[in-house]
Specification:
3-stranded mixed β-sheet; globular
Length: 571
């Protein structure tokens, strides 16, 4: 392969001159040691060759990194961090080649061990040309090991596998004494590796020839009766399934804002499959499965490796999506994603029930908090608020008694289709698990009314809304006359709860005290200044996000003084 192609890629081109020269020598030496074969017994259909490394460098440079910040001399990655990352990409799959006899499930560990052995060999090119210190080599090995979870090794617990490895948080120093951000670099490599799913990775003619050998090997396995037969057949089938799905995507791309990375569907291939008799639904379901797997990994990496505010500035993308011009595929894909979000997750429900039991058994002298009903959605809502800067700082009025320091634009959050759909679906799912009877859905104020109408429509329940005291001036008289159905309890839906005074006042003003079955809020903003005041233990309150505390003070104690506290940035 022409290794000069690598020198045009930004993350390689931006290395310091000394590191760049060393990298070129190392690349040329180890190129022949990278895999140019399919590992038949290890069941690795997808090539782990230099083309795969080239794709990863491109993904890092063109789609993951914010090139304005990551190479900045003052705030960007250090020259050694960039060098170590580029070495990690080069060596991350070295164990999948002929130089190491390895099973696919533990290849990340074996690749790291190979690098350590090369470093320990004082005559090796890696040792002599890289000038890595012992600390830098350890960092390189941990980054390589973390790019994929080690499978089937009982000695590696879940909480020490992949990005959970505590060694990634050790402060290892580079040659000038600066910390190497191993967790961040491991996240970059792992994400780029996960995103290399296009049909460009299907391989070339030599791969096709090897596939014929695999078919023969597969037939031989079917006839065998030894103890390893079933395990190897399962592994072979899984690899073949993964390889075949690479046909679905032709490339990756960015949206117009450069914040969403798109898996670009190979529409020509899809249309060919449809013309051969496959349905759009089945193809869209397969696309949805691949997308969901990558998105789960994407979310996990973002949470574990990119959550540090000092590192976030280096990453451009905050979301993952798909791109297709085939409307039927787009429609069926959205349907498949909706079905996934509405499916009952028994483990999650069980976990939430445990959380609820735990919270309701707390010491009653402490502030009760609403039960969080979906941990995954809480993270999505937090990410959306942070990434879109919906948390706005300023001084504003909560109600007649309290003022606060910041505000979240929940209306804009809820008007985002994907988040809104998930909020509504999660509330519906939770209501169904509770099996409530004889209720109507009641929205508080505008956002609550919007959500309540969608929840009620899908549950086929009657819907109404009511208005808080501070919003009465914005509503016509007929909007303020709440009509309740006789003998029905109410499930209230609202956008946010902090002190609970607004909700309490509205409940009492409309004489709902004995009618409230439960309350669902998008946000619960823990008012640290009001600790010890048990404000919500009268009702069943369920929340979708408890992760944004709020600084609340009584207006009489406000620094603007009671008579001057009008609330800047007021809603």
């Amino acid at each position: 392969m022409d290794t000069s192609l690598f020198l045009e890629i930004e993350c390689i081109k931006k290395m310091a001159p000394g590191e760049l020269e060393a990298f070129k020598t190392i690349l040329n030496h180890y190129e022949s040691k990278l895999s140019d074969r399919i590992v038949i017994d290890g069941s690795a259909f997808t090539p782990h060759d230099l083309n795969h490394c080239l794709s990863i460098y491109k993904i890092i440079s063109n789609y993951i990194f914010n090139n304005l910040t990551v190479y900045n001399a003052e705030i960007g990655l250090t020259r050694r961090e960039l060098f170590i990352l580029n070495l990690a990409v080069l060596f991350h799959d070295i164990s999948m080649s002929d130089v190491v006899d390895v099973e696919r499930g533990n290849h990340s560990l074996k690749s790291a061990e190979y690098v350590k052995e090369e470093y320990d060999d004082t005559k090796s090119v890696l040792r002599s040309k890289s000038t890595l210190t012992n600390s830098e080599c350890k960092a390189l090995c941990e980054i390589i090991r973390a790019h994929s979870d080690v499978k089937g090794d009982p000695e590696i617990p879940v909480n020490e596998n992949g990005l959970n490895n505590s060694k990634l948080r050790i402060k290892r120093k580079d040659t000038v004494g600066k910390n190497i951000r191993m967790l961040f670099l491991a996240g970059v490599l792992r994400l780029a590796d996960e995103l290399d799913v296009s049909n460009e990775r299907l391989g070339h003619e030599y791969i096709e020839n090897q596939l014929e050998q695999i078919e023969k090997k597969y037939e031989e396995m079917l006839e065998r009766k030894d103890s390893e037969r079933n395990t190897k057949i399962v592994s072979l089938n899984e690899s073949k399934k993964h390889w075949s799905r690479l046909h679905l995507f032709e490339s990756i791309d960015l949206d117009s804002s450069n914040s969403e990375i798109l898996l670009v569907v190979d529409d020509d291939y899809i249309e060919q499959r449809i013309s051969e008799g496959e349905t759009a639904r089945s193809l869209a379901n397969t696309i949805s499965e691949v997308y969901s797997k990558i998105k789960k990994e994407f979310d996990d990496i973002s949470q574990k490796a990119f959550s540090n505010k000092d590192d976030k500035i280096y990453i451009s993308i905050v979301r993952l999506g798909i791109k297709t011009e085939i409307k039927e595929i787009e429609k069926e894909f959205n349907n498949a994603q909706s079905r996934l979000s509405l499916n009952y997750d028994e483990k999650n429900i069980e976990q939430q029930e445990k959380v609820e039991i735990c919270r309701h058994s707390n010491d009653k002298d402490k502030l009760e908090v609403p039960t969080l009903i979906d941990l995954t959605l809480e993270k999505k809502i937090s990410d959306e608020i942070n990434n879109r800067r919906l948390l706005q700082f300023g001084h504003f009025r909560l109600n007649e008694q309290y003022c606060a320091r910041d505000w979240i634009n929940v209306r804009e959050l809820v008007e985002t289709r994907t988040i809104s759909n998930e909020i509504v679906s999660t509330i519906i799912k939770h209501i169904n698990t509770r099996d409530v009877k004889n209720v109507m859905i009641l929205g508080l104020d505008m956002v609550g009314a919007l959500l309540a109408s969608r929840v009620g429509f899908q549950l086929q329940l009657p819907v109404s809304y009511f208005v808080s005291k501070e919003n009465t001036e914005y509503n016509a008289k007929q909007d303020l006359d709440l009509q309740l159905l006789k003998d029905k309890k109410v499930i209230i839906v609202t956008e946010s709860i902090a002190t609970f005074n607004t909700m309490n006042e509205a409940i009492k003003r409309y004489d709902l005290t004995d009618k409230v079955d439960s309350i669902y809020t998008v946000l619960y903003r823990y008012p640290a200044a009001l600790q010890g005041k048990d404000l919500i233990n009268e009702y069943k309150v369920f929340s979708l996000n408890n992760s944004f505390p709020i600084e609340v003070v009584e207006k009489s104690n406000c620094i603007y003084k009671e008579k001057l506290c009008y609330g800047k940035n007021s809603r």
